[in-house]
Structure formats: C-alpha cells, structure tokens
Specification:
With 540 residues, this protein is mainly β. The protein folds into five domains: 41-133, Immunoglobulin-like (Sandwich), CATH 2.60.40; 141-241, Immunoglobulin-like (Sandwich), CATH 2.60.40; 251-326, Immunoglobulin-like; 342-431, Immunoglobulin-like (Sandwich), CATH 2.60.40; 436-531, Immunoglobulin-like (Sandwich). A hairpin with a 2-residue loop joins strand 28 and strand 29 (377-378).
Length: 540
C-alpha cells in the first residue's frame, strides 16, 4: 500500500531545512576598527619614584595586551650587578631583580623607549621611564645632547650614550671602560640622561653593533675631552661619532711573498714609509696601490732572478730604518709569475690622455709597432710619455667628431720578466667638452688659515671631485660631470690636505667640518658661480 504524504508537511520540511542550514553557516565576526593607539601605562606597583626600594620585583600595568617587541631597548641605568628578568604577561610587564643586585643609596632609571608594543597591530610605546631609589632620595641631575656623524654631520639614530665614573683612568684604553649609565639617541639624534648623582663622569657615544653595551674596536665612537661636572656644566652636549684609526699611519701590517719575483707589503694609510732591498745588486720596481679602509699595498718586483734564500728588506720611516726578513719559501702552493696583461684606458675627462697600462713593470715598449687610426687614416705624430713603469701616456689632440682605433700588436711590449703581450685593439670615442659643466667659486678677502675646500658628489660623499687648501680668492673647476654637488670645508689642522678622524688615546677630536647648504646643480655646457661669504667660512 502506497503511503500518501501530506503536501503541507512537505513544504514545512523544506523550509525548516534551509533555516537550519543558514544557522549552521559560520561567519567570522567583524574585527572592528583598526587599533591605532599605542599601549598606555595605567598603573605601577610600586609606583615610579619609590624611595627605599627593597622589593625584588616591579609590575607595570597596561590598558591592553602587550608584548616585548625590542628587548634591547629596555635600558636600566646604572647597570645592576646582575641582569633582571623582564617579561610580558597579558597586560603586564614584570621585572624580577636578582636578590642583592641593586646597590644601596642609588637611583635607578628604567627606560622602555620603543620596547613595548600591543599584540595586535604591534604599535610601539614611544617612551616610558620608571624611577626608583634604594636610598632616601632620588638623584635629580640630568644632561641632554645630540649625536652626529663627524664626517657627514647628520644626526644619528639609535646610538648608545654611556657614562663612566672611572674618571681617574681617563688615559686608559677606551675599550676597557665600564659603562654605568646608558641611553640611546632618538629619531632626531637627541638624547637625555636623567636621575644622575653628583659625580664626575666621562661621556661616550658608540654605535653598539653587537648590542652588548660595551665599546668594541670595530665600533664608531664619540667622546668629550672634558668630564661632565654637575652644577658646573650647563650647555647642551654634541658628541661627534667617528671611525677610529685601526693603526697609526704607515704601520706595517703584513708581508707576503707572492712568488720568486714579487713581494707585497700591506701598510696602513701609507704616507711616508718606504720599502727597499738591502742587497744593492738586486734591481727592483715598486708600485703603490691605495686600498679600501686604509689598507694600502706596496708591490715590489725583482728584475733579476733570485733563488729561494731569504731576502732582507729595509723599511724606512722618518729617518728611522728597520730590517725585514722574508723567508724564501712561499707558504702553500708555489705561485708562478703573473701573466702580464695590457689594457687601454680611455679618457675620463675631455682632453685627457689615453693610457697604456701593464700589470707587470714594462722593460721595453716599441711605439712604432702600434697602429693608431683616426677613422681610417693612420696617425704618426704621437707623443709617448712614461708615467711610471706600469703606465704610459698616449699624448695627442683627439677630436670628438672622430673615432679612433688603437691597436697594440703582439710582442710590442716586454715586461721585466721577458713576457710579451698578446694583440689588443680598441675603438676610442673622445669625450665632448660640451657634455660637461664648470664651477667657479668666489671667496671673501679674509680667509681663515688651514681651510680645505672640497667639492663632493651629492649622491656619494666619499667621491671628492676637487680638493684644495685655500690660498686664493677664486677657484675654477672644469669638466665636471653633470649632476648635483655640494661644497665641504675642512679645518685642516695638520695641513695634510685631507679630513682626519679622531683619536681617544691622544684626546684628539675629528677635524671640524662644514657643509655649505647651497646645492650645486651642474649642467652640460654650462658654467655656474658660487659666492661664499666670511660667515660661510666660519667652522664652529
């Protein structure tokens, strides 16, 4: 027997199915508006400013759930004997001190600048300071200042500033200083140290690469020659951070025997040092190469063959000599004499000469074998000038409207090792004068002594295109590549025509620098004039 369904019941069942399905669907809740506010401190236990602090822990309450985003930015001054345990727990930061790690009758300051953030948006708490004293009083002295780069003069962010009260050891190494009070520079290079006692301090700034709150040899530093004396010092402090010299100039770092004919001497910032061979029967050629970060090299090439016996060299500096013995055996696998390579160096500026360059010293060069063509026409009236044993000028008035082909044929150049070159050919297109600009700098009648004038590439301050000790009222600089430049003035105390960094051991600050604010925009085929005033030449 067939069962007959009630039509109304069927409709009811279908509607109920859709209602239940709709109820079962999971819809994520609306997250609401984005939290743009940083966490706020709503309470502390004990309260900041507590005296006779004898507890082992501190609790700081916030208005929302928080995290410790940058633990290294939590700074305690002076440093406790043992580092406390600091952790986030819900809406709290808990600080647990190791028992007996705080000194008696001492004011401690805890800075949370850019260390605490909310757990959702990661919004940082810009600054918060907590102060306590283990004695009856809170120390109230403070100092403020700014940190700048000694060379670029730019404000420096996140630089560590530290105080040490071991002022009686001012002549000791900067790397042995124990830093008691510490803080960091803000986004404008400014800093402040508060709640300091009535003591005399040395102050330092250093770029703490490894975040160990200690000054290490590879780190840039800054210092003041005078100690901080409270109730006497009132002016704001400027700390100029610089890269210290790794060695004294002309310091011999290493000696290397490359092969039986080539020796290398690594000298830090070579200026006056000279290398020679004791045995006068041996002829040789030297080559100075400027290296990166002051590590210069002197290559010494022996012309006549030597056996593996020890060679004795003479290192001369300021009329003082030392002998250097380099063992005849080469460390590791014996190296052959390097292949001699010849290259053609084109012009870098209009009217420059073209250079023929050799990697090994040249013994003989046969100019007559060279082929030099202007388009297809052979040129014979060429002047050759020897710069040094490695470089020869090809002097000729090259015209920009022509292309020139230079062919150095096989065996036209012989090195001191009787090596012969292989053929090279190169097309040279001379540079046009119209593609470059010029600069004229006018100076006032009254010029300070020992003032170095430099013109720098605006995009790369290490690229000094012009440098001259000022002894005239007008300077003309030609053939400048179009672009933006700036003028830098250096108080060149030792008259060595370069900026010198500082030296803590000698209590010498970096030489003073001033950048002229006026931007110089060099355009092709255009000369511009800059007029400097007496006020421009004043360097504070």
């Amino acid at each position: 027997m067939k069962k007959i369904l009630n039509k109304s019941n069927s409709i009811y069942s279908i509607v109920l199915f859709f209602i239940l399905s709709s109820c079962a669907q999971q819809i994520p809740p609306d997250g609401g508006n984005k939290d743009e506010q940083a966490p706020k401190v709503i309470g502390e236990k004990p309260a900041s400013g507590a005296r006779n602090f004898g507890a082992n822990n501190i609790t700081i309450n916030f208005d929302e759930y928080i995290q410790i985003k940058e633990a290294r930015n939590i700074i305690i001054s002076p440093k406790p004997k043992k580092k406390p345990i600091i952790q986030a727990n819900g809406k709290k930061v808990l600080i647990d001190f190791i028992p007996n790690s705080l000194d008696s009758n001492t004011t401690y300051s805890i800075s949370f600048t850019n260390a605490i953030a909310d757990i959702h948006e990661g919004k940082l708490l810009n600054t918060h300071n907590y102060v306590l004293s283990t004695g009856n009083n809170l120390d109230s002295n403070s100092i403020q200042g700014k940190v700048i780069d000694a060379l670029s003069q730019k404000n420096l962010i996140d630089v560590t500033i530290g105080l040490t009260d071991n002022t009686q050891y001012k002549d000791s190494s900067i790397y042995s200083k124990y830093i008691s009070y510490i803080t960091k520079s803000d986004s404008n290079g400014n800093f402040s140290l508060n709640n300091l006692p009535n003591k005399e301090f040395e102050i330092f700034a250093f770029i703490d690469i490894n975040n160990n709150n200690e000054i290490d040899k590879e780190e840039k530093i800054g210092f003041l020659n005078e100690n901080i004396k409270f109730l006497i010092t009132s002016s704001s402090i400027v700390l100029k951070v610089f890269k210290p010299l790794e060695y004294e100039p002309d310091h011999l770092i290493d000696t290397i025997k490359q092969n039986e004919r080539k020796y290398q001497f690594v000298i830090y910032q070579k200026e006056k040092a000279n290398i020679s061979i004791l045995d006068r029967k041996i002829s040789y050629t030297t080559q100075d190469i400027k290296g990166n970060n002051g590590y210069d090299t002197v290559n010494l090439y022996l012309s006549n063959y030597q056996d593996t016996s020890n060679q004795i060299f003479i290192y001369t500096l300021n009329n003082k000599t030392d002998t250097l013995k380099i063992h005849g055996k080469i460390k590791g696998k014996s190296k052959r004499i390097e292949e001699n390579k010849i290259s053609i160096i084109p012009q870098s500026k209009p009217n420059d000469s073209i250079i023929i360059r050799s990697t090994n010293p040249i013994q003989n060069i046969d100019y007559q074998l060279f082929t030099i063509k202007k388009d297809t026409l052979q040129i014979d009236s060429i002047t050759w000038i020897k710069i040094d044993p490695f470089n020869y000028y090809l002097r000729y008035k090259f015209e920009p409207k022509y292309s020139y082909q230079i062919i150095v044929p096989d065996s036209s150049i012989t090195s001191i090792y009787n090596q012969y070159n292989t053929r090279i050919a190169q097309i040279i297109t001379p540079l046009k004068q119209e593609s470059f600009g010029g600069l004229k700098i006018e100076l006032p009648s009254k010029i300070p002594v020992n003032l170095l004038l430099e013109v720098l590439d605006q995009t790369e301050t290490k690229n000094v295109i012009y440098s001259e000790l000022i002894n005239s009222k007008s300077y003309i600089i030609e053939n400048i590549t179009p672009g933006k430049y700036k003028i830098r003035l250096v108080k060149d105390i030792n008259n060595n025509k370069k900026w010198d960094t500082g030296d803590y051991g000698k209590q010498m600050q970096p030489e003073k620098i001033k950048y002229i604010e006026q931007e110089i925009n060099i355009k092709a085929y255009w000369d511009i004039e800059i007029i400097l005033t007496e006020n421009d030449l004043l360097i504070n």
